[in-house]
Design goal:
It is a single chain. It is built from five helices and eleven strands, in the order ααββββββαβββββαα. The chain has a five-stranded mixed β-barrel with strand order 7-8-9-11-10. It has a three-stranded antiparallel sheet with strand order 1-5-6.
Length: 236
């Protein structure tokens, strides 16, 4: 598979060698192509030919080169399987002077993948208990792999009812755990292990799982509350 970070110059010779049997169709509209690039507009194109290290599609009268590394999210074994197929791409690079146009199907494919993932997450109800595996550990918590491309965060405050100093003291990568969904927001899952412990609080602890949103009470409120508690008490 070609390196996805290769530039237009890297592909230049391969394009020149392979384009001999292909011709631009119609009048080139470079201004429109630049607009597509700026706005990252998804375009539906047809794969017209297979060349060295990629395939060819025509956009606005210009031959567009789609490198094999930008054709799919994974490795492409057979470029010929794409011949004649319609795919979605964005304009990745333009060189009007050299007549070069490089397209990419990765971004539209990744966007669709993310949309499907968010839809699956939003379908999960708060309170759902799931089995998972510790995927990644951070100082603030652990990311849990829930399978089927889904994952969620167990904040350090949601790991145990006991106070812990470090996530690593309790969890290790690859460890199997059972978690409870306590919040679903913006396509993200907040999870809790603490809520499943005996005597654990099963309510939505999302505020505790996001301490940056937590605000300590002001000192005058504390004084007022104490005054209210002591009011009416007579000392002998």
């Amino acid at each position: 598979m070609a390196d996805e970070n290769m530039t237009m110059e890297d592909f230049s010779k391969a394009i020149d060698d392979s384009f001999t049997s292909f011709k631009d169709e119609g009048e080139a509209n470079w201004e429109k192509l630049k607009e597509y690039q700026t706005e990252k507009t998804p375009l539906t194109v047809t794969v017209d030919g297979v060349v060295n290290k990629g395939v060819i599609s025509n956009v606005e009268g210009v031959r567009g080169f789609i490198p094999a590394s930008r054709l799919a999210l994974g490795h492409v074994d057979d470029l010929n399987a794409y011949l004649g197929k319609e795919i979605q791409v964005i304009v990745r690079e333009i060189d009007e002077q050299k007549g070069r146009l490089i397209l990419s199907a990765v971004e539209p494919l990744r966007a669709k993948q993310n949309e499907k993932r968010k839809a699956r997450i939003n379908a999960i109800e708060v309170g759902t208990v799931m089995d998972g595996k510790v995927e990644n550990i951070q100082s603030y918590g652990a990311f849990i792999d829930l399978g089927d491309g889904l994952s969620g965060l167990v904040h350090i405050s949601q790991i145990s009812r006991k106070r812990i100093k470090s996530v690593e003291d309790v969890l290790q990568p690859g460890q199997e755990v059972k978690v409870k969904v306590i919040a679903v927001k913006d396509g993200k899952l907040s999870l809790s292990m603490k809520a499943l412990e005996e005597g654990g609080d099963a309510k939505d602890d999302s505020r505790e799982a996001a301490p940056k949103d937590y605000k300590l009470p002001k000192s005058e409120n504390i004084s007022t509350n104490l005054g209210s508690l002591l009011k009416g008490i007579k000392l002998n």
